[in-house]
Amino acid sequence: MFIIGSVIARIVSAIPWRVDALTGPLKMQATPSASATYSISQRRLLQSAALLQTAGRIARLGGWMIDVATDRVLWSDEVCDIHEVPHGTVLTLEQAMRYYPPGWHAKAEQLYARCLREGAPFDEEMQILTSGGRVVWVRAIGEAVRDADGALLQVQGACQDISDKKALEFSASQLSERLTTTLESITDAFLMVDRDWTLTYLNSEAERLLQCTRENVVGVNVWTSFPEAVGGPYYRAYHKAMETNTSVSFEEYYEPLDLWTEIRAYPSQEGLAIYFLDISQRKASEAEIHALAFYDKLTGLPNRQLLLNRVEHALELCRRVARPGALLVIDLDNFKAINDTRGHDKGDILLQLVAGRLRGVVRDSDTVARFGGDEFVILLEDLGVTDVEAAAGAQAIGGKVLAAFGAPFDIAGVAEYSTPSVGITIFDGGSGSVDDVLKRADMAMYQSKAGGRNGISFFDPDMQARVSARVALEADLRQALAHQEFVLHYQPQAAVDGRLCGAEALVRWQHPRRGLVPPSEFIAIAEETGLIIPLGRWVMETACRQLARWGASRATDMLEMAVNVSAYQFHRADFVETVLAVLRESGARPSRLKLELTESLLLKDVDGTIEKMKRLKQIGVGFALDDFGTGYSSLSYLHRLPLDQLKIDHTFIWDAFREGHGAAIVRIIVALGKALKMTVLAEGVETDSQFSFIVAEGCQAYQGYLLSKPLPEAALAEFIARPRAPARPRM
Predict the structure, then answer these.
(1) Domain total of the chain
(2) Is the Cα dihedral 477, 480, 481, 486 positive or negative?
(3) Is residue 155 part of a domain?
(4) Does a structural domain hold residue 683?
(5) Same structural domain for residues 158 and 211?
(6) Which domain holds residue 404?
(7) pLDDT, position 42
(8) Average of pLDDT values for 168-191?
(9) In degrees rounded to 5, what are phi and psi of residue 17?
(10) What's the pLDDT at 284?
(11) Which residues does 342 contact at the CB level (< 8 Å), separation at least 6?
(12) Which residues contact 77 (CB under 8 A, 6 or more apart)?
């Protein structure tokens, strides 16, 4: 190897020799004790040569030389190995050039020709085609060697196999591209600055809101690009985040762009990641509300105008999220009699007392308004996902309204009774205009009056029947808890290599008349009525007892149990203590329990959610984000959550084989999982084609009917004991 040879030559030159000029022709003789010195030097020389040769082999680095006089190319053993030719191979320059493929041949010829002709050194990364037909990336270094008169004697240099380095660069580039795609797809505007305040990245939403282009601002100091912000709230907040290494969040107005923003900034060693939203429309609405008198002076309730605005907003929300709402029109049955006999001032007192009682029967998120005279309106939102759920919630509020009027009203020391007639209409995104909704509720109210007053009527007669059925189902659900009519089925989960990982616990209702009822028919009711708390406790206890039984056998002690957790359960103050108690009482290993959370659960109290997760993570409990991609997950807090796994919703797996974007979404989720160091599990895998797809995209685990449907406990035990061949994707 030429480079090693030159180093050895320098070592040899350091051995102590002297010339004895008195003995005639030049003769090399050893100094006193030269034999001992020579032996030591020789050993050191051989050791150095061996070390250099070992280093070259490990680094896949070797030397080469072109003899100008003979046009011969000499390769070291390492260079021969790189080209996959026998050691000691000697070639002509023309033969050596043939190892460069067509795409690189001209460039290689030019580099070597210039070095031979002009002595120009080179250091290039290029591709070669080995004798075995492999394409290999190499770093080729060359320089000219001249004699004392400047004549070119040879060209020498080094050659190193850098294929691994190039592969890593390619993988990093792919990951960067996928992360960039993810950042471009989120609804937040996003930008990054380094520790010197240089803008290093911004997505398209940030370009739109900041009215700039990446070409003009990336690589430029952020305060140079936005000088009006220097010294202001943004400047102070970002510097505080960077200096104290703590995140900041705030709302601020940027006058040059007439832009209200909601900011969240997170520091790191690289700099600052900044997420922001345009909240200008929200701020404009707030200013309008404060500028106008939108509240009834007598009762303090929202007046007609504010109610109309809120109903319009509720209808727009229904069109976007497909969640129905309800409107209740309430008219006092005997107000005119009290107003006429006792005076308008006493009538005003009654209206004030009614307003107080109505406020007491609704949630903080609901609107109680005085629509005019003795007519009140209640706007209810977020009542569930179906009309039946919304109707049940509205009827419950209507019942509370009737009950609130049961006690007399104290009007200037005199007890007066008043009753309401309540009309209810359910609305969704297709319910028409605000006037249409109000007319339907008003018609239902008059129907209530015609039916004898002091009652409730729905605009849709069929709705009453459905609500009655729902009430009956709720009663059955309470009976089911008391009589222990629930059972667990378990859907196996496996790694893509066929190894069984565990199972997901799924609750079923063994109804005495209807048979096995799926959770889609009763979980929503359980959540609305609060029955999800005892039901969720029973599910976790039953699943953990099964997990403890697995832990008692060497054949199953590595299996995990996944348990779904409702937002109603998780946000209770005693949730962590409940899980700890269940684990303690069942004897299950915490490290084998995996709690599955939904994206909607994460939208409320992010900091509190993280704190609860961390407490359970300390004892080994794992967390998976269920149905990922179907809700709203902001990267601004997703990376803060101590999650172990992302579960891809089955709709994306199925959509990958239609004309949708399922395949692209799966790739983004897998890339995100890798970036955040989470495993990725695909749900709903039912066909060999789907299985091959998720394996190709990098999913580590899966569940679905291709593996197994949900099984009762006994059938699950048989499934676990059954031998199975490793899964192999069909290409």
Answers:
(1) 4
(2) negative
(3) yes
(4) yes
(5) no
(6) 294-470
(7) 55
(8) 69
(9) -120, 160
(10) 86
(11) 411, 412, 414, 416
(12) 1, 53, 62, 87
